[in-house]
Every structure is written in C-alpha cells, then in structure tokens.
Design goal:
Blueprint lengths: L25 H16 L4 E4 L4 E7 L4 E7 L7 E5 L2 E10 L4 E3 L5 H12 L3 E8 L4 E6 H10 L4 E3 H7 L1 E3 L9 H8 L3
Parallel strand pairs: 5-7
Antiparallel strand pairs: 1-4, 2-3, 4-5, 6-9, 7-8, 8-10
C-alpha cells in the first residue's frame, strides 16, 4: 500500500491465535480465593487453596530458578479448611460445555478422597462453573458420588445440576457465597 509522500508500508504476516491451556479454571479459582479471603477476614471460616505437592529435582543456583520438578503425589481436592468446627473440603472446576460436565475432569483419587471425607462426617462438595451459561453450581459430594455410582455416563448432564445442585449467585462480597448453601442445605 502506498501512502502520501512516498511512504511505503509492507504488510505484516497475520498473527496466529495461540491457544493456551495453562490457566483454565483461573476465573473460578480467583473468585473462590477472594471469597475465602472475605470469609477469613469476617472470621466465618478458615479455608485455603491447597498447593499441588511437587518435588524439586534440579535447581540452577546461579539464577536461583527451579529447572526440573515433578508431581510428588496426586493432589486430592482444591480447597480445605474448617467451618463451624467441621472439616470442609471441595473441588472447583470450570467447563465451556453447555449441556454437561465431563467426568474426565475429576480423577478417581479425588472421588475416593471425597468419599473418605464424607465417611468422617466432613463437608464435601464440587463447585462447577458453566462458563458459557454464566452459572456456578454447588453439588454436594453425596449427590456427585450417587450419580457416578448409578450411571455409566461419561458426563453429568446440565439438567442434573439444575435438579440436584444449588445455583450460586455471584455478588460483590463475598464473590461466591457458597457457605450460605452449606449452611442451609449441608447439615451445618
């Protein structure tokens, strides 16, 4: 293309859209971290995000950077803590799927962990955000496990969330008031 005064502009190559998968679920995680901070500040509950256990195998001491690490053991669930004297534990997931939540997003060791929490009278649940619907649900672990044990499907239909789970309204403070549902329906 030629512009006035002889300025020539050469077209640049079209940039390819880069798809990254590293921060999937970060929006829900961020909202939950803000919510949990609010709960701690208000002295309502003590709930934290659990770090993924890693083992460092190589370090570059000149730059003080980790150069090699691996997962030491499978992580259980995303969050745990104490609410009204009871252990609370939950997993948080996001999906862009409109009609269902893929069960491949939950690992067998996580389901086993949830079963154990329930066996010890802890409070346990799954929070799922349907991104394209702009809806977030709390599904108690007993209902999650009941679905998995009673069905051979590879996903939980959205209608199951409408029927068995609790829609969590997003608000300013706390951002996702999941303790309201735990209080009303979780036996606390």
């Amino acid at each position: 293309m030629n512009y006035p005064k002889g300025i020539k502009v050469t077209p640049q190559k079209e940039l390819k859209k880069v798809i990254t998968y590293g921060n999937r679920g970060m929006s829900l995680e961020n909202d939950l971290n803000i919510t949990n901070e609010f709960y701690r500040d208000q002295d309502r509950a003590i709930i934290y995000k659990k770090p993924t256990p890693i083992k460092i195998s190589k370090v570059n001491y000149d730059t003080m950077k980790i150069t090699e690490a691996f997962f030491e053991s499978p992580s259980t669930t995303d969050y745990n803590g104490v609410y009204k004297g009871r252990y609370i534990d939950f997993e948080a997931k996001e999906t862009d799927n409109i009609t269902s939540f893929p069960l491949k997003n939950i690992h067998k060791h996580q389901l086993l962990h949830m079963r154990r929490v329930l066996d010890h009278q802890g409070i346990c649940f799954l929070i799922v955000r349907f991104n394209k619907r702009h809806e977030t649900y709390l599904l108690f672990a007993k209902d999650l496990l009941q679905f998995i044990e009673g069905h051979e499907q590879k996903s939980i239909p959205y209608t199951y969330f409408q029927e068995k789970a609790y829609l969590l309204e997003e608000q300013y403070h706390p951002r996702i008031n999941y303790l309201k549902v735990v209080e009303e329906y979780g036996g606390v």
